[in-house]
Amino acid sequence: MAPATKYKARPIERPPSHNGVPLPRNWGAIQGGMAYRPDDHEDWASVAYKFGVRIGDLIYFNFKTDRLDEVNWYLRHYTGCVKVNEQGTSWMFGHGASPGVIYIPPWPGAEAADADSGEEPRSDAE
Hints:
Blueprint: H1 27-30, E1 34-36, H2 44-51, H3 55-63, H4 68-79, E2 83-84, E3 91-92, E4 102-104
Antiparallel strand pairs: 1-4, 2-3
């Protein structure tokens, strides 16, 4: 008998519901966003903190949705994420993602935050 293999769940994805049509692939750029390629150790919270924006605002700016299944669809199909988080619920940023780019909104406060400022990150639910 073959040994049992541990099955790792895949994130639930659903095509976006913007009148049945996904956003253009370069949506963030069209909206004036700055292209940014997160590292393996980064997530939505760390990128939002780095640029002084709220987590939910960063996600919504990129995909015009806050629904986890739709965000996962965009992360897989547009950002090219291939790593899954430990819980198996979300795609993760990483070097294997191609193109691996998200966009930072051009709002006031969206420029990179000074790491030595001692400023606390904003707490928003993802």
